[in-house]
Amino acid sequence: MIVVPEPEPRSVRPSLPEIKWHFIGHLQKSNINKLIAVTILYMLETADSVKLADKVNSTWQKKGPSQRLKIMVQINTSGEDRKHGLPPEETVEHIIKKCPSLEFVGLMTGPNPDFQVVIPYLHLFHLDTSCSLFSGQIEVVSTNVRIGTLAETKDPNGASQAHSFV
After folding, report:
1. DSSP secondary structure string for all residues of the chain
2. Distance CA 22, CA 137 (A)
3. Chain segment 5-63, per-residue pLDDT in tens
4. CATH for 21-165, options being 3.40.1160.10, 3.20.20.10, 3.40.50.2000, 3.30.1390.10
5. Who has greater pLDDT, 127 or 52?
6. Residue 4 pLDDT class (50, 70, 90 cuts)
7. For residue 27, which phi and psi values (nearest 5 degrees)?
8. From CA 36, how far away is CA 116, in angstroms rounded?
9. What distance in Å separates the CA atoms of residue 81 and residue 26, rounded to the nearest whole number?
10. Is the pLDDT of residue 71 over 90?
11. What residue spans define the domains of the chain?
């Protein structure tokens, strides 16, 4: 996960003022304040729990921006325990009804051969989608295409972790 250690990525802001930053990755509640401090934050693509949505909502409210923060619910299409995400129904309804500072805009899912799981929700909620596997993006007509890697780091166990951006 990338959380910018300073309030703004200085190298981006002056040269590209039109940048709309999408946060992609597992967000821990302890890092929400750091994320919300980024002034070019446009969307959180990985809300994976009601508790996280509530904390983001209250923190965004305290910041006081006039626009709601766009948010996608991360769903687990694979059913794998090690993957983040949840069934979208309860979380989507909760965000719409209980999080006035958040604007629910779509669903996010990681790579999985079964992208068909997402399609019924697209029609039900009239949603944007964000998938991390290009062939899956084409199959479900993803509206956000994640095409690059901003950084690659090693976790404490030495495993490589790529951090994507839109």
Report:
1. ----SSSS-TTTTTT-TT--EEE-S---GGGHHHHHT-TTEEEEEEE--HHHHHHHHHHHHHH--SSPEEEEEE--SS--TTS----HHHHHHHHHHH-TTEEEEEEEE-S-S-GGGTHHHHHHHT-EEEESSHHHHHHTT-SEE--EEEEEEE-TTS-EEEEEE-
2. 17
3. 444 555 555 566 677 888 887 888 899 999 998 888 899 988 888 899 999 999 999 99
4. 3.20.20.10
5. 52
6. very low
7. -105, 120
8. 33
9. 14
10. yes
11. 21-165
Cβ proximity of 145 and 108 under 8 Å: no
Selection from 103, 87, 94 nearest residue 45 by Cα: 103
